[in-house]
Amino acid sequence: MTNPILFAKAALIGLSIAAPVGPIGLLCIQRTLEQGPRAGLAAGLGAASADALYGALGAWGVSALIALLSGARVALGLGGALFLLWLAWGTWRGGAGAGGAVARPGRGRPLGIFAATFALTLANPATILSFVAIFSTLAAAVGAASPAWMVAGVFAGSAAWWLVLVACVARLRHAVSPARMRWIRRGSALVLGGFAALQLVVLARGLAG
C-alpha cells in the first residue's frame, strides 16, 4: 500500500470515528455557540489530537501500551464518566444568573478547552477499542509504508470533521437569542449527564458479565 493510499484510508478512519454525535460533538457545538468558532475549533482539535495519539500507538505497533490501555478501559471509562458529570454540572450552573456569570469547565482559554476535550477523548473506552480493532486490520500495510502517513491521515480526517462542524454552527451563532442559548446550555448539560449515566451503565454491565 502506497503512502497516499494509506493516508486516505486513515483519514476516512479518523472521519468515521469523529463524525458520530456524542459528548465531544455536543461540547464542540456548545463552545462554538457560546464562545465562538475559536473555542469550538479548540475543542475539536483536542479530540482530533487524541485520535491521532491512538492512531500513532496503533501505527507504530506499541502493542504493550495498547494492551495496557485496553485492560484499563474500565478505570478510564469511570474517569471519563465522572468528568462528563463534572462538565454537565458546570454547564448547568453556567446558565444560572444574569449573563451566566458562573464559570464552566474549560471556559475561556482555547488551551483549556483543548486540554479538556483531549483528556475526555482519551478516556473514552469506545475510542480505544475502535482504534485497536481498526488498526489491527491495517497493521500489515504499515510495514510497507511510513506509519507517519497513517497518523497524519487520522488527524486530518478527524480535524476536517470538526472544521466543518464548527463552520456550520458558527453561521447560526448570531441567530440564537440569549433565552434560547440558556435552554441550549441546560439541554446540553442534561445530555452530557445522560452520556455519563449510559457509560456507567455499560461499565457496570461489563463488570457484571
Automatic annotation (TrEMBL):
Spans through the membrane: 6-29, 41-68, 74-92, 113-142, 148-169, 189-208
Keywords, comma-separated and alphabetical: Cell membrane, Membrane, Transmembrane, Transmembrane helix
Domain of life: Bacteria
Keyword Mitochondrion attached: no
Main location: membrane
Keyword Membrane: yes
Membrane topology: Multi-pass membrane protein
Cell compartments where the protein resides: Cell membrane
Protein name: Lysine transporter LysE
